[in-house]
Amino acid sequence: MNTKKRIDGDYYIETINATDMVHIASNTATYASNAGLLTHKTATTFAGIRYNTNDNKWELSTSTGSTGETGTWSEIGTAVSGTVAGANTQVQFNNSGAFGASANMTFTDTSQLNLTGNVNISTGLQLKDSAAPGAVTNTTVLHGGIAGSGGTGVYFVDDTTTDELVSKSKAIVFGIIF
After folding, report:
1. CB 75 within 8 A of CB 37
2. Digits of tens for pLDDT over the chain (178 positions)?
3. CA 56 to CA 79: how far, in whole Å?
C-alpha cells in the first residue's frame, strides 16, 4: 500500500528503511524543476545531489544554500574532470599527478605507436614471430621470425631489402668462409 506524507521544514531523519522507491519532490514555485537531497557542511553551507529536470541531468554541489537554489551545481558526469594534455594522438601519462603528454609519443587509429627520441628498455624486447611486413617508405621495420642463416630470428624490412640480422658467432663463421 502506498502511503504519502507531506513534510515541510527541517527534519532530521536518521534511517530510512525502504522496500520500494523513495520519492523526493520539490514543492517551491521557483524551484519546482529541481528536487534532491542536501546535507549540512557547516551551519550555513550545504552540499547536495539533485536531478535537474530542465537539463535532464544529475548534478552535485559542494557548496549551496539551505534551499539548494544558490551555489554551483555541476553535472555528475563532469563534476570531477581534468584537462586533456597534449595534442590529438599524443599518449596521456601521469606526470606527477597531472595529465601529461608529449609529441614524442603518439598513437594513431591505425594501431601505430610512434616514438621519437631515445627509447630505454630495461628488460628484453620481445619480437613475435610473424610474416615480413610490407616496406614502409623511409623506415626500417624490425620483426621476429624463425632463425635463419643469420642465427638471430630478428629480421628487418626497409625500402629495398628484407633480411635477417646476423649474430656475432655467425658473422665470424661467415668471415672465415668468405
Report:
1. no
2. 455 555 555 555 555 665 655 655 555 544 445 667 888 888 888 888 888 888 888 888 888 887 777 788 888 875 556 788 899 999 999 899 888 999 999 998 777 888 888 888 888 888 888 888 888 788 888 889 999 999 999 999 988 888 999 988 888 887 787 6
3. 15
Q: Are residues 35 and 20 in the same domain?
A: yes
For residues 7 and 46, give the distance between their C-alpha atoms in angstroms, rounded to a whole number: 19
C-alpha pair distances (Å), 156 with each of 4, 140, 147, 151, 160:
77, 6, 13, 14, 11
114 and 97 assigned to the same domain: yes
CB 31 within 8 A of CB 51: no
Q: Residue 96 sits in which domain range?
A: 83-120
Same domain, 52 and 66: yes
Same domain, yes or no, for 171 and 95? no
| Run of H or E residues at 166 | strand 162-166
Quote the number of domains for the chain: 3
